Amino acid sequence: MTSELGRRLARRIAVAGPMSVAEFMAEALGHPTLGYYRRALPIGADGDFTTAPEISQMFGELLGAWLAERWQAMGRPSPVRLVELGPGRGTLMADALRATRGVPGFHGALDLRLVEISKPLRALQETVLSGYRPAWHERFDDVPEGPLLLIANEFFDALPVRQFERTAHGWNERMVGLAPDGTTLAFALSPGPSPFARLLPAALRDGDSPPGTVAEISTAAIDLANRIAARLVQQRGWSLIVDYGRDAPAAGATFQALRGHRPVDPLERPGETDLTAHVDFAALAETARAGGARVFGPTGQGTFLRRLGIEQRADALKGRATAEQRDAIDAALARLIAPGQMGTLFRVLAMGDDRSPAPAGFSDET
Ligand code: SAH
């Protein structure tokens, strides 16, 4: 049985024809009343997935230190908009702010802005962050002007992607249509090559991929990176994007669904299932550079966190922990930085204005 939103989308497709995977993803996650991120409490052991800040306080603490250092590097602007895109349960920001209490002048300069579409998650964020007087926004563009410090962990992977499939005639678009029963959602190919395929990276689009090859692009992610970069350049600031994804253009379908920590059919129960796709960091970096921003990374999360001193932080925490707590700290550290775990699959990308020195955590400007 599908969901209420699944039934509605099927009726719409019956009348208006197939929709793109991007349109499906946007509805399934963001539909004003039935979308997944409007209603669910997705994160944590009893949700659908777990994120780095929920694994260990060290993650938010080190990102907080990174942000405070960027603020100092910018010349300590006041006020500075501290923006988080998709703050989830508020854990990352709470850890970041607790860890930076001692940075002279930093908290006094902060104007905390949370971009969040989920009412239940806004309520959780309020409970852990009310002391910092946050304001909430539906969209990044609603954040008032001014110098910016922006952070986004596992946000870009929720932005819609289009999918294309190589055929004998070119790149057709993968669409969401109806199975022969007329009510079940099913993938279908556009009848001819898609005009949107021109947006694919040239190497992929014009290369000789065999028929059946799938490629993805998120115009929503590229558009957002472009708007963030423009603000950083015009009004100064730095941003840090952390997510799972790829560093270079590559073929492959990564659009996927998770429910209760398990992969499921992405078309099965829209609105009740988390949908994600890998983030194309090469595309984000290229957009930001074209907009005049400085770009560092993407680098692996493990390397980045080690450069920021996560192992020393773990040792410090272990110094005042019980044996059981020490084991938990070691396990969390491994999950965050080990190559087979989040250490390499997750990538970190910094972009910023061209008037500040290079940030910590990266080897080279890219
Ligand atoms: N950053 C958090 C949560 C990641 S889950 C963590 O690391 O734990 C994705 C977050 O983005 C959730 O808070 C979700 O409600 C929010 N979100 C998803 N799509 C959004 C959109 N289009 N606009 C604003 N927030 C969105």
Properties at a glance:
eight-stranded mixed sheet; 39% helix; five-stranded antiparallel sheet; 366 residues; 2 domains; Rossmann fold; globular; single chain; alpha/beta; 15 helices; binds S-adenosyl-L-homocysteine
Briefly summarize what is shown.
The chain is of the alpha/beta class and 366 residues long.
Structural class: alpha/beta
Number of E-state strands: 16
Mean pLDDT across the residues is: 95
* Ends apart, CA distance between termini: 48 Å
The number of domains is 2
Largest sheet: 8 strands, mixed
- Share of β-strand residues: 15-25%
Report on the architecture of this protein:
The chain is α/β, with parallel strands linked by helices. The protein has two domains: about 5-40 and about 160-215, no CATH class; about 50-160 and about 220-255 and about 275-350, Rossmann fold. Helices cover about 40% and strands about 25% of the residues. It has helices spanning about 5-15, 20-30, 35-40, 50-55, 55-75, 90-100, 105-110, 120-130, 200-205, 220-235, 280-290, 300-305, 310-320, 325-335, 340-345, and strands spanning about 20, 80-85, 110-115, 135, 150-155, 160-165, 170-180, 185-195, 215, 235-245, 255-260, 260-265, 275, 280, 295-300, 345-350. A hairpin with a 2-residue loop joins strand 6 and strand 7 (about 170-180). Helix 5 (about 55-75) packs across helix 6 and helix 14 packs across helix 15. Bound molecules: S-adenosyl-L-homocysteine. S-adenosyl-L-homocysteine binds near residues 30 and 87.
